[in-house]
Amino acid sequence: MAEARAVDLYYDPYDFEIDANPYPVWRRLRDDAPLYHNRKHGFYALSRYDDVAAALVDWETFRSGRGTVADVIFSGAQIPPGIILWEDPPIHDAHRKLLAKVFSPRRMLGIESQVRDFCARALDPLIGATEFDVIADFGALMPMRTIGYLLGIPEADQAAIRDNTDEVLTLENADAARQFDAGTFERSIEVFTEYIDWRAEHPSDDLMTELLNAEVEEPDGTRRRLTRTEVLTYTSTVAGAGNETTTRLIGFMAQSLAEHPDQRAQIVADPTLIPRAVEETLRFEAPSPVQARYVARDVRFHDQLVPEGSVVLILNGSANRDERRFAEPDRFDIHREASHLSFGYGLHFCLGAALARLEGRIALEELLRRWPEWDIDYSGAARAHTASVRGWSRLPMIVRPA
Predict the structure, then answer these.
(1) pTM listed for this prediction
(2) 300 or 76, which is more confident
(3) How large is the average pLDDT for residues 310-324?
(4) Mean per-residue pLDDT for 312-325?
(5) What does the alpha-carbon distance between residue 258 and residue 273 come to, in Å, rounded to a whole number?
(6) SS (H, E, C) the chain
(7) What's the pLDDT tens digit per position in 3-34?
(8) What integer pLDDT is reported at residue 173 of this predicted model?
């Protein structure tokens, strides 16, 4: 049996130096080792667009039920029920149908004015400043506020929930990757206990109330109410899933448009280009560029075997820069008309994609309305380090007012 070809090449999602700019390594993976095997951590990696798309669709081979983050699969931690990101059919389908109501067009329309109002409250006090941190002063706040509107969590409590999510995901070093256990999940959901108790007694038009009253259809056709653990886990999943990634999207938009001032000027002149700028940023700098899967049966790529029981990293961030799919993939171009895999593909396509796009559009509209020109002070910038999410934790912007 052929194995993944050994090459003079090393890729490691826990290597912070590689993570700062993975694109040269990913290009070499695509060219020289489209099925790559990392012996240190024991995973395989797929990097080409066609392979990544195929793996994302083939849920019967590439399973999510043991986690979709490498840290979680490696740890062997028991996954609690209700984390839809880490489920396989048939239970995934039942839970997805339930949660799809959260991101309905009605709800998206209902929160847009609230999101824009928050932007004004966050950004207007910064008018007159010559520099501010687009992450700390805005990007890290906006997504949690938005999720808070959906969940019905008071603004005063949202920062603590965001910080809890950061603590769970952030890696201090590569060894921290295997430290997930049942207690990690328990700590991530217990912060919502009081909110669920309150909503049980004081129903409202929000997600928590809807979950408390929801019924899920079992594979045998019977219906039941969600358990308390499921309600807590659903709430925690929604609160955390879009928080980190949308924060990183806002940072990458600020960076990309600072580095391409000509395209930023085009957007200022024609704001209808903003949705395209959001999409190109998602392609160019995927906030969640690495998806992990457990291999449920032997599978072959490039005439090489990936045996059952393996862990595969599906590099959608690399696929988005595959020259086999995109013309000049390393060029940022807001006029590009091309699909990307930053929200996944197939049955695990991101439920919150419409929400992330709404937040990205509003964030860019409100930033450009106040500051049509900016630069980045990289001397004060810092990156966040996780095994699955890339982006800035600090990003000072030097701004020039309208």
Answers:
(1) 0.90
(2) 300
(3) 98
(4) 98
(5) 16
(6) CCCCCCCCCCCCCCCHHHHHCCHHHHHHHHHHCCEEEECCCCEEEECCHHHHHHHHHCCCCEECCCCCCHHHHHHCCCCCCCCHHHCCCCHHHHHHHHHHHHHCHHHHHHHHHHHHHHHHHHHHHHCCCCEEECHHHHHCCHHHHHHHHHHCCCHHHHHHHHHHHHHHHCCCCHHHHHCCCHHHHHHHHHCCHHHHHHHHHCCCCCHHHHHHHCEEECCCCCEEECCHHHHHHHHHHHHHHHHHHHHHHHHHHHHHHHHCHHHHHHHHHCHHHHHHHHHHHHHHCCCCCCEEEEECCCEEECCEEECCCCEEEECHHHHCCCCCCCCCCCCCCCCCCCCCCCCCCHHHCCCCHHHHHHHHHHHHHHHHHHCCEEEECHHHCEECCCCCCCCEEECEEEEECC
(7) 455 457 999 998 999 999 999 999 999 999 99
(8) 56
Q: Which of 352, 353, 294, 344 is nearest to 319 (CA)?
A: 344
Contact call for residues 286 and 321 (beta carbons, < 8 A)? no
Closest CA to 240 of 104, 84, 64: 84
Tens digit of pLDDT for each residue in 239-274?
A: 777 788 999 999 999 999 999 999 999 999 999 999
370, 127 contact by CB (below 8 A): yes
Stronger pLDDT, 386 or 114, i.e. the higher one: 114
Residue-level pLDDT at 162: 64
Intra-chain end-to-end CA distance of the chain, in Å: 64
Say how many C-beta atoms besides its own lie within 10 A of residue 90's C-beta.
12
Beta bridge partners of 293: 312
pLDDT-derived band at 1 (thresholds 50, 70, 90) equals: very low
Q: Rounded to the nearest 5 degrees, what angle is found at the Cα of 328, between the Cα atoms of 256 and 289?
A: 55
- 45, exposed or middle or buried, with CB in 10 Å at 0-12, 13-18, 19+? buried
Inter-residue contact 177 to 171 (CB < 8 Å) = yes
Q: Give the mean pLDDT of 329-358.
A: 92
Distance CA 47, CA 26 (A): 7
pLDDT at 172 over 60: no
Query: Which amino acid makes up residue 88?
Result: D
